[in-house]
Amino acid sequence: MAVLNYLGPMDERPQNYPSDPARTKLNLVSHCVPVEDLSGAVDAARLDREGFELVGHRTSVSDFRVRDERDQIYRKEIEEMMLAVTGAAKVVVANGLLHRFAERDARFGAAGSTTPIRMIHADYSRTSGKLAADALLTPEERGRYRRSAGYSVWRALSPPQQDVPLAVCDARSVEESDWIGGDVVLLPPGRSPIEWEGSFYRYNPAHRWCWFSQMNRDQALVFKTHDTDGSLAERAAHSAFDNPNENCIPRESVDIRVTAFFE
Questions:
Q1: Is beta strand 35-37 parallel, antiparallel or unpaired with respect to 2-7?
Q2: What average pLDDT does range 10-36 have in this prediction?
Q3: Is the model's pTM score more than 0.85?
């Protein structure tokens, strides 16, 4: 069992300011839910079925704090991996990589790092995901591809079990009425705010939550953030949670966004 934070009733549109929590307007309600451990299961989950998939993938990056390693080596590794995993014709890996430390790690709060997000969400909505994908293409390219899909690639750098692991929700267990759109607003220093529509979720006891307790550095958890093909899993709601098991390792992880285009 795990405690996950859903969106409760609100009279106003949800707003999340990740860099300025004081401005965030979210009514979060905690629920204790079962989380199924899929470690070691054969064909446990597929991207186009449940909306997430565990992929074996080694990285040659030795230190994710070194900008050249993460910006050059890792982005190329992820591009090659996602082309193979998705079968897409074109893959664009985001420039920004998020390096996260849990509170028990001595590096928690270090410059350039972020923290685990203990809130059920998906990075994009149906509308904002397509807009973000289209912005990566030239006008000529937009007529070439029939489908776009967004993904997040999450890698645990600390050994199992992590004290604040990631739970993902089987997309087949989520009803359209469980979803609610809200504003996500980033406030980059010295720049104009960056705003888009994110996805938040109301509690539904039918939700099937999953995790991989034995994830290690040589694996990547890939999950969807949007998909323009409505016949496939559209996105996977996800959230960090506090591992109730004793003797856990403080979490260190990296995640990066990827957009794929299909002919």
A1: unpaired
A2: 96
A3: yes
Closest CA relative to residue 86, chosen from 6, 150, 16, 144? 150
The mean per-residue pLDDT over the stretch 120-139 comes to 96
Task: Return the structure tokens found at 261.
Answer: 């285009």
Give dist(CA 85, CA 52) in Å, integer. Answer: 11
**Other CB atoms closer than 10 Å to residue 2's CB: what's the count?**
18
Alpha helix stretches (DSSP H) within the chain: 67-68, 75-86, 126-134, 139-142
HSE-CB at 1 with a 13 A cutoff on CA atoms is: 6
Lowest-pLDDT range, 21-30, 63-72, 131-140? 63-72
Which residue bears the tokens 């004081």?
22
Of 74, 233, 255, nearest to 166 (Cα)?
255
Return the H-helix or E-strand segment holding 152: strand 147-156
Q: Which amino acid is at 249?
A: I
The answer on pLDDT for 71 being more than 90 is no
Beta-carbon contacts of residue 80 (< 8 Å; ≥ 6 apart): none
Rounded to the nearest 10 degrees, how much is the dihedral formed by the CA atoms of 44, 46, 47, 53?
30
Coil vs helix vs strand at 39: coil
